Amino acid sequence: MGGIREVVAVIVAADSATGRVVKAIDELTAHLPPPDEPWACPLCSTESWPCSRFNAAAHQVMTAGLQIRDWIPNDLHARLWGKPKPRSPAPPAPRPQAAPQSETWFDEESPDG
Ligand SMILES: [Zn+2]
Q1: Model confidence over 37-80: pLDDT tens digits?
Q2: Are 106 and 65 in contact (CB under 8 A)?
């Protein structure tokens, strides 16, 4: 069960921000779950996704100043950051988290903060 997420290869300058963290990006991508099983890391059978190795790689990518969001398929954004909020004037009521998710491992940057 479970497909394999399609990947592409790209060549970047080694001394670019991306080039300096290609290993982390490789690692990050290797730990992306397949589209039909977004909780299942293909490499870490004992952890549900996002697994610790994914988190570690994500930290490295972010430390390089890259937008982690740009390296993650859209269908996984909701799993990392929660579902996009519908525009609603009412403030969100505090509610317990449904899933036992690990702590927020990074803050979403607001583009115009
Ligand atoms: Zn993993």
Answers
A1: 999 999 999 999 999 999 999 999 999 999 999 999 999 999 99
A2: no
